[in-house]
Amino acid sequence: MSSKKIGFWSVWALGVGGIVGGLFPALGVVIQIAQTGAPLAFAIAGTIALITTYAYAKLSVAHPCRGGTVTFLNQAFGSGLFSGTLNLLLWFSYVVMLSFYLQAFGSYGVSLFTSTQPIWKHLLISLAILGTTGLNLLTANHVGKSQIWIVSFKLGILILFITMGSSHIDISRLETVSVSSLQSIFAGAMVIFLSYEGFELIANAAEDLVNPKHTLPRVYYSVIGFVILLYVLIALVTLAAEPVEQILAAKDYALAEVAKPIMGQFGSVLITIAALFSTISASNATLYGSARFSSVIAKSRGFDFDSQINSIDQSSIGLFITSGITLIIANFFDISRISTMGSAGFLLIFAAVNLANARMYRYTKSKQWISLLGTGICLVALGMLIWFALQTDPQTVWVLVFMVGVAIGIEVIYYLSKN
Q1: SS3 state of residue 6
Q2: Going by C-beta distance under 8 Å and a sequence separation of 6 or more, which residues neighbour residue 303?
Q3: What is the rounded distance in angstroms from the CA atom of residue 362 to the CA atom of residue 360?
Q4: Which among 118, 171, 260, 295 is most buried, taking Cβ atoms within 10 Å?
Q5: Number of helices (H), then strands (E), in the chain
Protein backbone atom coordinates (compact mmCIF):
# COMPACT_ATOMS: atom_id res chain seq x y z
CA MET A 1 0.00 0.00 0.00
CA SER A 2 1.29 3.44 -0.86
CA SER A 3 2.32 5.72 2.01
CA LYS A 4 1.74 8.82 -0.11
CA LYS A 5 -0.44 11.36 1.68
CA ILE A 6 -3.28 13.24 0.03
CA GLY A 7 -4.26 16.88 0.49
CA PHE A 8 -7.36 18.98 1.07
CA TRP A 9 -8.58 19.18 -2.54
CA SER A 10 -8.24 15.45 -3.24
CA VAL A 11 -10.43 14.58 -0.25
CA TRP A 12 -12.77 17.50 -1.02
CA ALA A 13 -13.26 16.08 -4.52
CA LEU A 14 -13.90 12.63 -3.02
CA GLY A 15 -16.58 14.05 -0.71
CA VAL A 16 -18.31 16.21 -3.34
CA GLY A 17 -18.07 13.42 -5.91
CA GLY A 18 -19.67 10.99 -3.49
CA ILE A 19 -22.57 13.35 -2.81
CA VAL A 20 -23.42 15.15 -6.07
CA GLY A 21 -24.31 11.94 -7.87
CA GLY A 22 -27.45 11.97 -5.72
CA LEU A 23 -28.69 15.24 -7.22
CA PHE A 24 -29.76 13.71 -10.54
CA PRO A 25 -32.18 11.08 -9.20
CA ALA A 26 -33.31 13.28 -6.27
CA LEU A 27 -34.33 16.40 -8.21
CA GLY A 28 -37.43 14.94 -9.85
CA VAL A 29 -38.41 13.05 -6.68
CA VAL A 30 -38.30 16.14 -4.45
CA ILE A 31 -40.17 18.32 -6.97
CA GLN A 32 -42.89 15.68 -7.20
CA ILE A 33 -43.36 15.78 -3.41
CA ALA A 34 -42.53 19.38 -2.44
CA GLN A 35 -43.40 21.14 -5.72
CA THR A 36 -42.04 24.72 -5.62
CA GLY A 37 -40.79 24.14 -2.08
CA ALA A 38 -38.05 21.83 -3.42
CA PRO A 39 -35.20 24.35 -2.80
CA LEU A 40 -36.26 24.63 0.85
CA ALA A 41 -36.50 20.83 1.08
CA PHE A 42 -32.90 20.53 -0.15
CA ALA A 43 -31.82 23.14 2.42
CA ILE A 44 -33.57 21.30 5.28
CA ALA A 45 -32.04 17.94 4.36
CA GLY A 46 -28.63 19.60 4.00
CA THR A 47 -28.91 21.21 7.44
CA ILE A 48 -29.45 17.79 9.04
CA ALA A 49 -26.39 16.50 7.19
CA LEU A 50 -24.38 19.57 8.29
CA ILE A 51 -25.19 18.97 11.97
CA THR A 52 -24.13 15.33 11.59
CA THR A 53 -20.80 16.33 10.02
CA TYR A 54 -19.81 17.77 13.41
CA ALA A 55 -19.86 14.25 14.89
CA TYR A 56 -18.08 12.80 11.85
CA ALA A 57 -15.37 15.47 11.95
CA LYS A 58 -14.68 14.94 15.66
CA LEU A 59 -14.75 11.14 15.41
CA SER A 60 -12.60 11.09 12.28
CA VAL A 61 -9.90 13.19 13.97
CA ALA A 62 -10.00 10.94 17.04
CA HIS A 63 -10.03 7.73 14.96
CA PRO A 64 -8.32 8.46 11.60
CA CYS A 65 -8.76 5.04 9.99
CA ARG A 66 -10.40 3.36 6.99
CA GLY A 67 -13.12 1.79 9.13
CA GLY A 68 -15.09 5.05 9.27
CA THR A 69 -18.61 4.55 10.62
CA VAL A 70 -17.93 0.92 11.61
CA THR A 71 -15.03 1.99 13.82
CA PHE A 72 -16.99 4.86 15.37
CA LEU A 73 -19.92 2.64 16.34
CA ASN A 74 -17.72 -0.16 17.65
CA GLN A 75 -15.63 2.26 19.72
CA ALA A 76 -18.70 3.86 21.29
CA PHE A 77 -20.95 0.85 21.80
CA GLY A 78 -18.60 -2.14 21.62
CA SER A 79 -18.74 -5.00 19.13
CA GLY A 80 -22.10 -6.21 20.36
CA LEU A 81 -25.60 -6.77 19.01
CA PHE A 82 -26.41 -3.05 18.79
CA SER A 83 -23.37 -1.93 16.78
CA GLY A 84 -23.38 -5.14 14.72
CA THR A 85 -26.99 -4.58 13.67
CA LEU A 86 -26.25 -0.97 12.75
CA ASN A 87 -23.21 -2.00 10.69
CA LEU A 88 -25.30 -4.47 8.70
CA LEU A 89 -28.03 -1.86 8.25
CA LEU A 90 -25.38 0.53 6.95
CA TRP A 91 -24.30 -2.04 4.38
CA PHE A 92 -27.93 -2.56 3.30
CA SER A 93 -28.29 1.23 2.99
CA TYR A 94 -25.17 1.34 0.81
CA VAL A 95 -26.81 -1.18 -1.52
CA VAL A 96 -29.96 0.94 -1.69
CA MET A 97 -27.89 4.05 -2.39
CA LEU A 98 -26.11 2.23 -5.22
CA SER A 99 -29.50 1.37 -6.71
CA PHE A 100 -30.53 5.03 -6.41
CA TYR A 101 -27.50 6.17 -8.43
CA LEU A 102 -27.84 3.43 -11.03
CA GLN A 103 -31.54 4.11 -11.61
CA ALA A 104 -30.57 7.68 -12.48
CA PHE A 105 -27.80 6.42 -14.75
CA GLY A 106 -30.33 4.31 -16.64
CA SER A 107 -32.92 7.10 -16.87
CA TYR A 108 -30.49 9.76 -18.11
CA GLY A 109 -28.82 7.29 -20.45
CA VAL A 110 -32.08 6.24 -22.09
CA SER A 111 -33.07 9.92 -22.54
CA LEU A 112 -30.37 10.09 -25.24
CA PHE A 113 -32.22 7.50 -27.32
CA THR A 114 -35.23 8.02 -29.55
CA SER A 115 -36.80 4.95 -27.96
CA THR A 116 -37.49 5.10 -24.22
CA GLN A 117 -38.70 1.52 -23.84
CA PRO A 118 -38.11 0.21 -20.26
CA ILE A 119 -35.93 -2.61 -21.61
CA TRP A 120 -33.21 -0.11 -22.56
CA LYS A 121 -33.21 1.43 -19.10
CA HIS A 122 -32.87 -1.99 -17.47
CA LEU A 123 -30.11 -2.92 -19.90
CA LEU A 124 -28.14 0.25 -19.06
CA ILE A 125 -28.58 -0.33 -15.32
CA SER A 126 -27.40 -3.92 -15.61
CA LEU A 127 -24.40 -3.01 -17.78
CA ALA A 128 -23.44 -0.25 -15.33
CA ILE A 129 -23.50 -2.69 -12.40
CA LEU A 130 -21.44 -5.25 -14.29
CA GLY A 131 -19.00 -2.58 -15.49
CA THR A 132 -18.39 -1.06 -12.06
CA THR A 133 -18.04 -4.54 -10.56
CA GLY A 134 -15.33 -5.33 -13.10
CA LEU A 135 -13.58 -2.02 -12.45
CA ASN A 136 -13.61 -2.67 -8.71
CA LEU A 137 -11.77 -5.94 -9.24
CA LEU A 138 -8.80 -3.75 -10.18
CA THR A 139 -6.63 -1.91 -7.65
CA ALA A 140 -7.65 1.15 -5.67
CA ASN A 141 -5.36 3.29 -7.83
CA HIS A 142 -7.42 2.49 -10.92
CA VAL A 143 -10.63 3.22 -9.02
CA GLY A 144 -9.71 6.64 -7.64
CA LYS A 145 -7.11 8.08 -10.00
CA SER A 146 -9.44 10.24 -12.11
CA GLN A 147 -11.91 11.26 -9.37
CA ILE A 148 -10.80 14.89 -9.17
CA TRP A 149 -11.09 15.32 -12.97
CA ILE A 150 -14.56 13.78 -13.08
CA VAL A 151 -15.72 16.03 -10.23
CA SER A 152 -14.28 19.13 -11.92
CA PHE A 153 -16.02 18.25 -15.19
CA LYS A 154 -19.48 17.71 -13.74
CA LEU A 155 -19.29 20.72 -11.40
CA GLY A 156 -18.24 22.89 -14.33
CA ILE A 157 -21.33 21.85 -16.30
CA LEU A 158 -23.66 22.32 -13.32
CA ILE A 159 -22.27 25.79 -12.59
CA LEU A 160 -22.69 26.66 -16.28
CA PHE A 161 -26.33 25.50 -16.03
CA ILE A 162 -26.90 27.78 -13.00
CA THR A 163 -25.19 30.75 -14.68
CA MET A 164 -27.11 30.45 -17.96
CA GLY A 165 -30.34 29.52 -16.21
CA SER A 166 -30.36 32.64 -14.08
CA SER A 167 -31.33 34.66 -17.16
CA HIS A 168 -34.31 32.37 -17.92
CA ILE A 169 -35.91 32.60 -14.50
CA ASP A 170 -39.64 33.40 -14.39
CA ILE A 171 -40.35 34.45 -10.79
CA SER A 172 -44.09 33.96 -11.29
CA ARG A 173 -43.50 30.20 -11.36
CA LEU A 174 -42.13 30.29 -7.80
CA GLU A 175 -45.07 30.33 -5.41
CA THR A 176 -44.74 31.63 -1.86
CA VAL A 177 -44.32 28.76 0.58
CA SER A 178 -47.43 28.50 2.77
CA VAL A 179 -47.90 26.80 6.14
CA SER A 180 -50.05 24.14 4.46
CA SER A 181 -47.21 23.24 2.10
CA LEU A 182 -44.61 22.84 4.87
CA GLN A 183 -45.71 19.24 5.45
CA SER A 184 -44.89 18.25 1.88
CA ILE A 185 -41.63 20.22 2.01
CA PHE A 186 -40.44 18.41 5.13
CA ALA A 187 -41.57 15.09 3.62
CA GLY A 188 -39.61 15.85 0.45
CA ALA A 189 -36.55 16.75 2.51
CA MET A 190 -36.64 13.43 4.36
CA VAL A 191 -37.25 11.32 1.24
CA ILE A 192 -34.25 12.81 -0.59
CA PHE A 193 -31.95 12.94 2.46
CA LEU A 194 -30.10 10.11 0.73
CA SER A 195 -28.79 12.63 -1.81
CA TYR A 196 -26.44 14.10 0.86
CA GLU A 197 -25.07 10.84 2.20
CA GLY A 198 -21.77 10.58 0.32
CA PHE A 199 -19.83 12.81 2.76
CA GLU A 200 -19.26 9.70 4.88
CA LEU A 201 -16.61 8.63 2.34
CA ILE A 202 -14.36 11.36 3.76
CA ALA A 203 -13.95 9.38 6.99
CA ASN A 204 -12.47 6.44 5.07
CA ALA A 205 -9.67 8.67 3.73
CA ALA A 206 -8.73 10.14 7.13
CA GLU A 207 -5.57 8.10 7.72
CA ASP A 208 -4.19 9.06 4.29
CA LEU A 209 -4.76 12.80 4.81
CA VAL A 210 -2.06 15.38 5.45
CA ASN A 211 -2.59 16.89 8.93
CA PRO A 212 -6.05 15.33 9.49
CA LYS A 213 -6.68 17.21 12.75
CA HIS A 214 -6.63 20.53 10.91
CA THR A 215 -7.83 19.46 7.47
CA LEU A 216 -10.72 17.07 8.19
CA PRO A 217 -13.14 19.58 9.78
CA ARG A 218 -12.49 22.03 6.92
CA VAL A 219 -13.19 19.33 4.36
CA TYR A 220 -16.42 18.14 6.00
CA TYR A 221 -17.98 21.58 6.53
CA SER A 222 -16.91 23.04 3.18
CA VAL A 223 -18.16 19.99 1.27
CA ILE A 224 -21.63 20.03 2.84
CA GLY A 225 -21.89 23.83 2.66
CA PHE A 226 -20.97 23.84 -1.01
CA VAL A 227 -23.37 21.02 -1.90
CA ILE A 228 -26.30 22.66 -0.06
CA LEU A 229 -25.73 25.87 -2.04
CA LEU A 230 -25.38 23.92 -5.31
CA TYR A 231 -28.55 21.89 -4.76
CA VAL A 232 -30.65 24.90 -3.75
CA LEU A 233 -29.50 26.99 -6.73
CA ILE A 234 -30.12 24.16 -9.21
CA ALA A 235 -33.60 23.54 -7.76
CA LEU A 236 -34.40 27.28 -7.99
CA VAL A 237 -33.25 27.53 -11.61
CA THR A 238 -35.11 24.35 -12.55
CA LEU A 239 -38.42 25.45 -11.01
CA ALA A 240 -38.21 29.01 -12.27
CA ALA A 241 -37.36 27.98 -15.84
CA GLU A 242 -40.15 25.45 -16.51
CA PRO A 243 -43.68 24.76 -15.18
CA VAL A 244 -43.81 22.00 -12.56
CA GLU A 245 -46.06 19.85 -14.75
CA GLN A 246 -43.51 19.88 -17.55
CA ILE A 247 -40.66 19.02 -15.18
CA LEU A 248 -42.60 16.08 -13.72
CA ALA A 249 -43.36 14.75 -17.19
CA ALA A 250 -39.63 14.00 -17.38
CA LYS A 251 -39.13 13.37 -13.64
CA ASP A 252 -36.46 10.70 -13.99
CA TYR A 253 -34.21 12.96 -16.09
CA ALA A 254 -35.57 16.37 -15.07
CA LEU A 255 -32.31 18.31 -15.24
CA ALA A 256 -31.59 17.28 -18.83
CA GLU A 257 -35.13 18.25 -19.88
CA VAL A 258 -34.97 21.68 -18.22
CA ALA A 259 -31.55 22.30 -19.79
CA LYS A 260 -33.08 22.34 -23.31
CA PRO A 261 -34.69 25.80 -23.15
CA ILE A 262 -31.75 27.15 -21.11
CA MET A 263 -28.71 25.70 -22.89
CA GLY A 264 -30.19 24.26 -26.08
CA GLN A 265 -30.03 20.66 -27.25
CA PHE A 266 -26.24 20.57 -26.96
CA GLY A 267 -26.50 21.83 -23.37
CA SER A 268 -29.05 19.16 -22.58
CA VAL A 269 -26.66 16.51 -23.89
CA LEU A 270 -23.88 18.03 -21.75
CA ILE A 271 -26.08 17.79 -18.65
CA THR A 272 -26.90 14.19 -19.54
CA ILE A 273 -23.20 13.36 -19.93
CA ALA A 274 -22.52 15.04 -16.56
CA ALA A 275 -25.30 12.95 -15.02
CA LEU A 276 -23.87 9.76 -16.48
CA PHE A 277 -20.35 10.59 -15.27
CA SER A 278 -21.64 11.69 -11.88
CA THR A 279 -23.86 8.72 -11.15
CA ILE A 280 -21.42 6.12 -12.46
CA SER A 281 -18.47 7.61 -10.54
CA ALA A 282 -20.58 7.82 -7.36
CA SER A 283 -21.72 4.23 -7.94
CA ASN A 284 -18.15 3.13 -8.45
CA ALA A 285 -16.92 4.83 -5.27
CA THR A 286 -19.87 3.50 -3.25
CA LEU A 287 -19.46 -0.04 -4.56
CA TYR A 288 -15.73 0.11 -3.80
CA GLY A 289 -16.38 1.25 -0.23
CA SER A 290 -19.31 -1.06 0.47
CA ALA A 291 -17.55 -4.18 -0.81
CA ARG A 292 -14.59 -3.55 1.48
CA PHE A 293 -16.97 -2.50 4.23
CA SER A 294 -18.69 -5.90 4.03
CA SER A 295 -15.33 -7.65 4.41
CA VAL A 296 -14.59 -5.52 7.51
CA ILE A 297 -17.90 -6.68 9.02
CA ALA A 298 -17.14 -10.31 8.13
CA LYS A 299 -13.68 -10.19 9.69
CA SER A 300 -15.00 -8.50 12.83
CA ARG A 301 -17.39 -11.42 13.18
CA GLY A 302 -14.68 -14.04 12.73
CA PHE A 303 -15.50 -15.07 9.16
CA ASP A 304 -12.22 -15.48 7.28
CA PHE A 305 -12.98 -16.51 3.73
CA ASP A 306 -9.35 -15.96 2.76
CA SER A 307 -8.30 -19.08 4.61
CA GLN A 308 -10.92 -21.10 2.73
CA ILE A 309 -10.85 -19.59 -0.75
CA ASN A 310 -7.33 -18.65 -1.72
CA SER A 311 -8.12 -17.54 -5.26
CA ILE A 312 -10.72 -14.90 -4.28
CA ASP A 313 -10.04 -12.34 -1.58
CA GLN A 314 -12.67 -11.46 0.97
CA SER A 315 -13.46 -8.02 -0.42
CA SER A 316 -14.17 -9.62 -3.82
CA ILE A 317 -16.75 -11.90 -2.23
CA GLY A 318 -18.35 -8.83 -0.67
CA LEU A 319 -18.21 -7.12 -4.06
CA PHE A 320 -20.10 -9.92 -5.81
CA ILE A 321 -22.77 -10.13 -3.07
CA THR A 322 -23.27 -6.35 -3.07
CA SER A 323 -23.48 -6.21 -6.87
CA GLY A 324 -25.96 -9.08 -7.05
CA ILE A 325 -28.39 -7.53 -4.56
CA THR A 326 -28.03 -4.12 -6.24
CA LEU A 327 -28.86 -5.66 -9.60
CA ILE A 328 -32.23 -6.80 -8.22
CA ILE A 329 -33.16 -3.60 -6.35
CA ALA A 330 -32.11 -1.19 -9.11
CA ASN A 331 -34.11 -3.08 -11.74
CA PHE A 332 -37.27 -3.89 -9.82
CA PHE A 333 -37.91 -1.05 -7.33
CA ASP A 334 -39.39 2.40 -8.03
CA ILE A 335 -36.90 5.24 -7.54
CA SER A 336 -39.09 7.02 -4.94
CA ARG A 337 -39.30 3.83 -2.91
CA ILE A 338 -35.55 3.34 -3.20
CA SER A 339 -34.98 6.90 -1.99
CA THR A 340 -37.29 6.44 1.00
CA MET A 341 -35.61 3.17 2.03
CA GLY A 342 -32.10 4.58 1.74
CA SER A 343 -32.92 7.85 3.51
CA ALA A 344 -34.51 5.99 6.43
CA GLY A 345 -31.49 3.72 6.77
CA PHE A 346 -29.01 6.60 6.80
CA LEU A 347 -31.09 8.74 9.18
CA LEU A 348 -31.00 5.87 11.67
CA ILE A 349 -27.25 5.36 11.17
CA PHE A 350 -26.52 9.07 11.52
CA ALA A 351 -28.58 9.23 14.71
CA ALA A 352 -26.34 6.47 16.07
CA VAL A 353 -23.14 8.24 14.94
CA ASN A 354 -24.28 11.44 16.66
CA LEU A 355 -25.03 9.42 19.79
CA ALA A 356 -21.61 7.74 19.54
CA ASN A 357 -19.89 11.12 19.56
CA ALA A 358 -22.10 12.31 22.43
CA ARG A 359 -20.99 9.27 24.46
CA MET A 360 -17.31 9.87 23.71
CA TYR A 361 -17.42 13.68 23.85
CA ARG A 362 -14.54 13.93 26.34
CA TYR A 363 -12.31 11.71 24.23
CA THR A 364 -13.21 13.48 20.97
CA LYS A 365 -13.13 16.93 22.66
CA SER A 366 -16.63 17.74 21.48
CA LYS A 367 -19.58 19.78 22.69
CA GLN A 368 -21.92 17.00 23.79
CA TRP A 369 -25.11 19.01 23.26
CA ILE A 370 -24.45 19.42 19.52
CA SER A 371 -24.32 15.67 18.93
CA LEU A 372 -27.31 15.04 21.22
CA LEU A 373 -29.20 17.63 19.17
CA GLY A 374 -28.09 15.81 16.00
CA THR A 375 -29.34 12.50 17.41
CA GLY A 376 -32.73 13.98 18.21
CA ILE A 377 -33.10 15.72 14.84
CA CYS A 378 -32.21 12.55 12.91
CA LEU A 379 -34.73 10.50 14.91
CA VAL A 380 -37.48 13.10 14.45
CA ALA A 381 -36.70 13.21 10.72
CA LEU A 382 -36.87 9.40 10.60
CA GLY A 383 -40.26 9.47 12.33
CA MET A 384 -41.56 12.04 9.84
CA LEU A 385 -40.30 9.93 6.93
CA ILE A 386 -41.98 6.77 8.23
CA TRP A 387 -45.22 8.69 8.83
CA PHE A 388 -45.14 10.05 5.27
CA ALA A 389 -44.43 6.58 3.86
CA LEU A 390 -47.37 5.13 5.82
CA GLN A 391 -49.64 7.76 4.25
CA THR A 392 -48.40 7.37 0.68
CA ASP A 393 -46.73 3.96 0.25
CA PRO A 394 -47.16 1.59 3.24
CA GLN A 395 -45.28 -1.19 1.43
CA THR A 396 -42.07 0.84 1.75
CA VAL A 397 -42.37 0.73 5.54
CA TRP A 398 -42.58 -3.05 5.43
CA VAL A 399 -39.40 -3.11 3.34
CA LEU A 400 -37.71 -0.96 6.01
CA VAL A 401 -38.95 -3.31 8.74
CA PHE A 402 -37.59 -6.23 6.71
CA MET A 403 -34.16 -4.56 6.36
CA VAL A 404 -33.89 -3.93 10.10
CA GLY A 405 -35.29 -7.38 10.92
CA VAL A 406 -32.76 -9.14 8.70
CA ALA A 407 -29.90 -7.13 10.25
CA ILE A 408 -31.05 -8.03 13.77
CA GLY A 409 -31.66 -11.66 12.76
CA ILE A 410 -28.17 -12.12 11.32
CA GLU A 411 -26.59 -10.67 14.47
CA VAL A 412 -28.75 -12.82 16.78
CA ILE A 413 -27.81 -15.96 14.82
CA TYR A 414 -24.13 -14.97 15.07
CA TYR A 415 -24.29 -14.53 18.85
CA LEU A 416 -26.25 -17.75 19.35
CA SER A 417 -23.67 -19.64 17.26
CA LYS A 418 -20.86 -18.33 19.50
CA ASN A 419 -22.45 -19.71 22.65
Answers
A1: strand
A2: none
A3: 6
A4: 295
A5: 18, 0
Identify the bridge partners of residue 337 per DSSP, sorted by sequence position: none
| 6 phi, psi to nearest 5 deg | -115, 155
- Contact between 68 and 290 (Cβ < 8 Å): no
- List, for residues 180-229, the tens digit of each pLDDT value: 578 899 999 999 999 998 888 788 777 777 788 888 899 999 999 999 99
Distance CA 274, CA 154 (A): 5
Cβ atoms of 189 and 45 within 8 Å: the answer is yes
Paired strand residues for 76: none
Whole-number Å distance between alpha carbons of 192 and 228: 13
Alpha carbon 140 to its chain centroid, in Å, reads: 20
> What CA–CA distance (Å, rounded) separates 187 from 381?
9
Q: What is the pTM of this model?
A: 0.89
DSSP β-bridge partners for residue 209: 6
Q: Which amino acid is at 382?
A: L
Amino acid type, 332: F
